Amino acid sequence: MAVVEQREIGADHERRDGPAKVTGTAPYAAEHPFADPAYAHPVQASIARGTITAIDAGAAAAVPGVLAILTHENAERLASDEDQEYWVLQSPEVSFRGQFVAVVIADGPEAAREAAERVEVSYERRDHDVVLRADHPELYAPEQVNPSFPTDTEDGDVEAALAASAATVDAIYTTAANHNNPMEPHTTVARWDPAAEHLTLHDSTQSVHNVRELLAPLFGLDTEQVTVIAPHIGGGFGSKGMPHAHDVLACLAARALPARDVKLALTRQMLFSVAGYRTPTIQRLRLGADADGHLLALVHDVWEQTSRIKEFAEQTAVVSRGMYAARARATTHRLAPLDVPVPSWMRAPGENPGMYAAEAAVDELAIALGIDPIELRIRNEPDVDPASGKPYSTRNLVECLRRGAERFGWADRDHAPSRKPGPDGRLAGTGVAASTYPVYRMSVSDATIDVLPDGRYRVQIGAVDLGTGTWTALAQVAADALGVGLEQVELQIGDTSLPHASVAGGSSGITTWGTAVTEAARNLLEAHGDHPDAGASATGSVSKNEAAKRYAMHAFGAQFVAVQIDPDTGEITVPRALGVFAAGRIVNPRTARSQLIGGMTMGLSTALWEQSVIDPVTGHYVNHDLAGYHVATCADIRDLEAEWIEEDDPHVNPMGTKGIGEIGIVGTAAAVVNAIHNATGIRIRDLPITPDKLLTAGL
Amino acid sequence: MQTTITLTVDGQRRTATVDTRVTLLDLLREHLGVVAPKKGCDHGQCGSCTVLLDGRRVTTCLAFAVQHDGAEITTAAGLGTADEPHPMQRAFLDHDGFQCGYCTPGQICSAVGMLAELEAGWPSHVTRDVVSRPQRTPAEIRERMSGNLCRCGAYVNIVAAIEQAAGG
Amino acid sequence: MRPFAFERATDAQAAVALVADRPGAAFLAGGTNLVDHMKLGITAPELLVDVTRLPLDTVQEHDGGVRIGAGVRNSDLSAHPLIRERYPVLSQALVAGASGQLRNLATTAGNLLQRTRCVYFQDRTTPCNKREPGSGCSAIGGHSRDLAVLGVSEHCIATHPSDMAVAMAALDAVVQTQGPDGPRSIPIGELHRLPGDTPEHDTTLAHGELITAVDLPAVAGASAYRKVRDRSSYAFALVSVAAVLDVTAGTIADVRIALGGVAHKPWRAATAEARLRGGPATEEAFVAAAGAELQAATPTVDNAFKVPLARNTIVAVLRDLCTREH
Hints:
The complex is a heterotrimer. By secondary structure, chain A is of the alpha+beta class.
């Protein structure tokens, strides 16, 4: 594939949607001008498992302003129960606490909410089970893990290799359930126009086309009968990658109230049960190495949860298949089906929790061997991808480690884990971890380019910008593909009336959409010359990357973290964090840096604060708001930097990009826990590491 | 119960007759069409709904509109426009102090209010000595901006933007 | 949220009369806690009486100390020169709480009357004796990491969430109220109560009794507030300590210690104080006194860490005050 000359790619540009966002005028899902909207407020199950025996909506219906109340008794019948997450208000069965059992639609949000509180639901309760255990009696091996990796792998005789090792690590690491918590709670405004037989959604989604394609059949509609619009969305981090039950609920409400926009905005609390989350994990790592630190065995076994109604198998151990040149390697994933909300994608599913455990274990091995943890990683650098046997298109982990070590001042580090005095009487230490994320290219995306009367180019693709910078970066890609300046490109995204595009997820956006746009540009210029006339038009589609048959393609990085710990209270602060990444060509340094530091910030959050606490008795995530579920605040993020090395990868795609939405979060948590161990001599293997855990461990 | 409220919003006099249960945030967003303040948590836990109320930064989700009849409100939309942004908005653009943009109008109003508080000499949690006048350090800015969560993780850039807007 | 009527009070007496007459009426000040609870459906007043425009918004010298109006906003109080100079512990406690935006709304009286952050109290779908007497306590045996270790009962292990109130407890503040039966003065230690078998009552105030001011007596010695929390800012305390320490020639002339995050009320550490008064200001003495105070702790598995944490934090604060005194 010809690589185009890059002038705009790599250039620093302010966000094109920036002026609208800083003035608060960029419209999010609930904020488009709707004339006389109605408001929907859901009712959620207050038991985790059982059957609804009666619903008394009498008091609710009497609330002034109430227009309709939908329950499983009167809601429209959906056409398919294939996906039980979308089987909303169709049955009296309750499969997790917080499941939607009714929805009230009213003239105003106050009336809708009051009436929802007044809906009385009676249940026949059954015993529920919401606690993940590695010895759960119903554990099973899924057919594959997200998105389509084998569940288990085994190469070589790991038991023999472990037995032959000079040093071994055998430890259990656990992580808490995490909730994505984008700042904009999931919101859908639905309108059913009976005359046109058309459903229009203004939705906070990472994929307008996913929403349309998954919802249309539920309502017996062709995809063309559904329009989904999402010019701006307030974050998603995977939780808006697929429609969730509230999308179905909003459509049910709109169909019951034809020709009126029905607004359904989830409350922050509701997100904790209906909008996806990251499963808690239990991970066992077994590493064995010879005395020189060469890995002989690497075994990564994972236990995690899924809901009983819909499987989601997070690919937590997959990172261990290709990271290091261990001679014998094995990985497994087992799921416990529980009466819990449906888990789903959250930023770097698999890699984030998996790399935490794997890279903490590597640190433990380095200490056991008395080898600098950076040197240990370098000694285990593979020549080819251990998972596939293919050479890497590019792999610059070692350069990231070396560059980071130099910038961070790693040479001065005391590697022995012990109480190390730091400033103000606190303990201080540093840690490192490696990072990796695969280059995903989605199979379907189309783009159209038209030459406008004024000579500028209109580029259309149904992609979504969830804060990643697509509005700007994809226009930069188009400009180079067309051989024009950025100002010559008008980009249109965020609408199903635009050509089909894949989800903004898996760090695949620029790779996938950019390839389609580049293809469309090439077709335009080939058919109409380098200076096409107004009215000229061409389309292009993403193609399968033939080079992927020959090369393994991954981004890599190195994460460095310094911590300080109050010896009296166990309070942990991170005075410094540095990430060095090798992620192919960087399209827009300004927005790219934001994505990388944003990922690292969320990684610190994973390590130190984020935990969704489930109550075994009530069966729900009880700390379900932003006071109870702690994410990083401004005060928590001090000197935090991201940089990248120039990487020229001709194999990944025409732009040379690898994707940067997720690599920044991967490995951060391991660097934090390794730093805490370095500062205190205490190894905590349970995330997040909060002050109580250090105190209990005898700080 | 209905009640009639008159406010000055971004320099314009606005009147609405609403239920007493309507918060200042919902009054702005659902009744007056002013969507710059965002609803992120609705419980005072994220800061996305921050505006300047009679010159002071406040969250609008925990304030009933009826209680603030007669107030003067400035939202991010009133601080500046896309063509003529406020210096704080300019600084957020220069430093890419946001990604998804949902917390941004609240961050910007909060930053403007915060600098006024610092100028007035108010102490903060990180002011070493609450008696003396606080300095405009990065640590002070970070602490004072901690009522505005940003899930995209733009804090580093937000602090840089505020330092620029404050005059370096 | 249920519909409610709204009245704006013109004077304290009228406000008291409006609320006292109706069991379903409540005072509305900054709103940062009450509106939160109304949205969650855990309280449903039918009449709100706005007291923010009453003339209760000044901080003045009074009787050798300072009188704080009930309506003074938390941010104004923390920044007031009289507070910063004479009661730094109070200023520090205020700025450790909530966020800049919330402190600009929240009032002195409202802060004192904050209700617990126990997740079950805040969730009307779960049993909670404080919210619904007799329904049971979900926190005992449930998620109790943030909850009380001192003065708990079998009915409730909730904590009081205020930072400001902890400092006021250490300062021996006196709360002035106006009630249906006239004014009264309540030492702050008697304002909040332990849960016992009536956890539905947070305080000893009668229905319709309005806090009008908080008086701070003069204080000698150095004072400080230390808040320990999971993240650096904008979080409730795991444990907090407010202390006033007056050391003369190595001997503790006076000491006052109050703990936050450990009990249903700001916990005055009387046992520790008694051990310390008149004794040496040494690390050993601090450790022994803090240990003695926490002897009575009855933690759950989840919050057992609060016992060493409170002990360590008391010692750290006293040590720090000693260093500053000399």
